Amino acid sequence: xxxxxxxxxxxxMSPATGFNLSGSLMKLxxxxxxxxxxxxxxxxxxxxxxxxxxxxxxxxxxxxxxxGRAEKQxxxxxxxxxxxxxxxxxxTASPDDQLRIDQLARKVEAVNPTKEPLKSDLINGKWELIxxxxxxxxxxxxxxxxxxxxxxxxxNVDTLKVQNMExxxxxxxxxxxxxPLNSKKVAVKLQVFKILGFIPVKAPxxxxxxxxxxxxxxxxRLSRGDKGNLFILKMFDPTYRIPx
Length: 244
Description:
By secondary structure, the protein is of the alpha+beta class. It contains five helices and eleven strands, in the order H-E-E-H-H-H-E-H-E-E-E-E-E-E-E-E. It has helices at 5-9, 36-58, 66-84, 95-109, 135-138, and strands spanning 25-27, 33-35, 125-132, 151-156, 161-166, 173-180, 185-195, 199-202, 208-216, 220-225, 230-237. The strands form two sheets. It has an eight-stranded antiparallel barrel. Strand 5 (161-166) and strand 6 form a beta hairpin. The longest helix has 23 residues, at 36-58. It comes from Arabidopsis thaliana x Arabidopsis arenosa. Residues 74-234 form the Plastid lipid-associated protein/fibrillin conserved domain. It holds the Pfam family PAP_fibrillin. One of its GO terms (cellular component) is chloroplast.
C-alpha cells in the first residue's frame, strides 16, 4: 500500500487547517506535543508583548508625568474659569449651568495637587469668591444694586479663624472659629457679625456648618459645604491675617 505523501516527505499537514507543521515535535511539561515552529511563534509573541509593556512603563503617557499633570491641571482650571466668567459668580446660573460647573469642578478636584489642604500654607490668606451655588451669599433675589459687588473669605489655620466679608454697598462681615475634622474638612462656628463693617452682633448658636477643601493651589481653591453648596475662589492676598 502506498504511503501518504506527508509520510514520504516528512511534512505534516493539519487535516483541520491545512497549515504546514513541518519540523520535529517537542514535548512540553503539559504533556502535549507542540510543533517547534508554533512554539517559536509563541516565543516571538511573548517577546513582543514584553517589549510593548516595557515601552509603556519606560515612556508613560504624558498625563502621568509631572509636566503632563501640570498641563492637565492648567487645562481643566482654564475650562472651569471660562465657564464661570459670564455667570456673575453664579447669580445668573441656570440649573444646566450649575450642573456643567459642578462637572467641571469635579474634574479639577480629581487632579488636586494638595492632598492634605489643612496641613498646607496654601490655604491661608484672603480669597475672592468667583462662583458659588449658595443662595444666601448670592442674594440673587435682591436688586443688583443691593448685592455685594465682591465677596472674600479668609482662613488662618494657625489661629483656627475664618472670616467672610462683603464689599459695597454694606461691607458686612462675619468671623468665626474652625475646628479640623480631618486633613481636608473643618467644622465652622460663626461668632460675630459686623453690620456695615463696624456694628457687632453676636452670631446665634445655630450658625454652624462644615467646609471641605476639595482643591487648592497657589491660585485657586474649591470647597464644598455641608449643605451641598460649591464655592470657587481665587487667591487675592496670601499674606492677609484675620484680626484677633
